[in-house]
Design a protein that fits this description.
Helix content is 11%, strand content 56%. The protein contains one helix and nine strands. It is globular, with a radius of gyration of 23 Å.
Length: 144
C-alpha cells in the first residue's frame, strides 16, 4: 500500500514538472490600470493607443493616439458616454483632423458621480482624401 502511494506521488510530481508554463507573474503588466493598447494588423494603421481614466475628483481623462503609414491625414473622434436609464448617452465628444502620419487627441471633462462611464474612439486614416483604413475602440466601464 505504501509503495502505491509513493508511486502515485512520483507520477503526479513528474506530470506536473513536465507541464509547460505559458505565463509569468513578473511580466510587468499592471492590469489595475485602465490602459488599452490595440495593435491590430491593419493596412495603414500601425498603432491605435487609447487611455481612459477618472480621478477621485471626477476628472475624466481621455487620450487617443494613432500612428499610421502611407497616409496624409488622420481623423480621431472621442466620445465620453454615461450609462443612464438602460442606455449609453454621449456626455461630450471631441474630434481632430491632423495632417501627417501621427495624430493625438487628449481631453479632460468633469463627470457627475453615481454613474458608469466609458470612452469610445474612432480613427480614420486618409490618402488623397479617401479613407484607406479605420478602426474603433470601446473602453472598459468605469464606475464613478
Amino acid at each position: 500500500m505504501k509503495k502505491k502511494h509513493i508511486l502515485l506521488y512520483m507520477y503526479i510530481a513528474f506530470a506536473l514538472s513536465t507541464m509547460p508554463i505559458y505565463a509569468r507573474s513578473d511580466s510587468g503588466f499592471d492590469s489595475s490600470k485602465n490602459i488599452d493598447l490595440i495593435q491590430p494588423y491593419f493596412t495603414n494603421i500601425n498603432v491605435f493607443y487609447n487611455d481612459f481614466n477618472i480621478t477621485n475628483q471626477g476628472k475624466a481623462m481621455l487620450t487617443s493616439i494613432v500612428d499610421a503609414r502611407n497616409v496624409d491625414r488622420i481623423r480621431i473622434e472621442i466620445y465620453l458616454q454615461r450609462y443612464q436609464n438602460g442606455r449609453w448617452n454621449t456626455v461630450k465628444s471631441w474630434e481632430t483632423n491632423q495632417n501627417g502620419t501621427l495624430a493625438t487627441l487628449g481631453e479632460n471633462w468633469y463627470v457627475a458621480s453615481g454613474y458608469q462611464y466609458r470612452m469610445l474612439s474612432y480613427a480614420y486614416v486618409y490618402k488623397d482624401g479617401i479613407i484607406v483604413d479605420s478602426t474603433m475602440f470601446s473602453s472598459t466601464t468605469i464606475i464613478y
